[in-house]
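One-letter codes give the sequence; backbone shape is given numerically. An example follows:

. . .
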Amino acid sequence: MKLLIRLAAQSAWNRRFTLVLMLIAIALSSTLLLGIERVRHDMRDSFSQSVSGTDLVVGARSSPVQLMLYSVFHLGGATNNMGWDSAQKLAANPAVAWTIPLSLGDSHRGFPVLATNGDYFTHFQYGGRQPLRFAEGRPFASVFETVIGAEVARSLQYKIGDHIVLSHGIGGPHLLQHGDKPFVITGILARTGTPVDRTVHIGLDAMEAIHLDWEGGAPMRGMSIPAELVKKFDLTPKTITAMLIGLKNRAAVFGLQREIADNQDEALMAVLPGVALDQLWEVVSIGENALLLISALVVVVGLAGLVSSILAGLGERRRELAILRSVGARPLDLFLLLALEGLAVMLCGVLLGVLLLSAGIVFGGPLLEAQFGIVLQLHWPTEAELKLLGAVIAAGFAASLLPGWRAYRLSLSDGLSPRI
């Protein structure tokens, strides 16, 4: 058997270029399959860890998924705002421990602007109830001060003391700017791996101040209020986009949710973040399954290439196999030789695929995070990923049985006297 293995190794070395091509095909297929599973898993983790310790998210009545998307993940826009009076009543509710008002709608160079108050830096949590921390600086204290996320600072090369100008609206290359009211950066938040990293934070009074001389989404003609005079006006917001609520006792969450839904003064809704995220996964599960199916088909194509290459090479290896028979190899030995060769190629290809994915995360992860806000973690394959890789290896071994069965049927005379 040792001689058989040594001869097989030498045969593989003589066909190293063909085997390397097959190895690359299997590696790329495995990388795609594993990469889609990793993106799906890490994207869910990233979304799930974006807000922690929040019992209810309250906003104008719409769909729970839409409310979560624009209030927590800053995706899309609100169809309606909720009144500031309603927000104040909720904050005064005996069951409520804290509230965080949120107001969205403006942006800065593609990054969303979130208007809030000091409670945001005190009560907002992410991941496993981790509080926000400052990498540099401090929270905003006056009207035209801002705190930016880690990704904003990295992408735009901002530092403490820099001045920035906000744009009216979200998206689009030709947004009107609030150029007469620049903001100074007073703080940069530590990286969280959540939408906080891609957000510019200002005060609720600042959101009102930059829109004092605006109406209908455009500056008022003939009217301009200088930045130094805005404090003479009432900067209390009239509406906000949404509100995060933490309760004194989580057992009261369903009661408060019903109370908000039954509110006669304003059409509001309150959603539990976990329930809304479950609904979101139901929405995107079709796309996830489609991606997994596509990657599985790519793996099937790679396996077909493996089988066809081995079968095509059998014609050239008939004399080699006949010589192995002549030195004592049994037909079963030839069958095992071809099957193990296919298994070895699959194992090496899968391992190379794991290495390629790890390298892609190390070198391409920051770009993916900057462009799409998806944070990929470098870690050992999870149980689900190991099952996928095991299925790929098992499928490759099963596919290699066909060439092995073909070699098993080759006779000694056919190998020594091949047909022309």
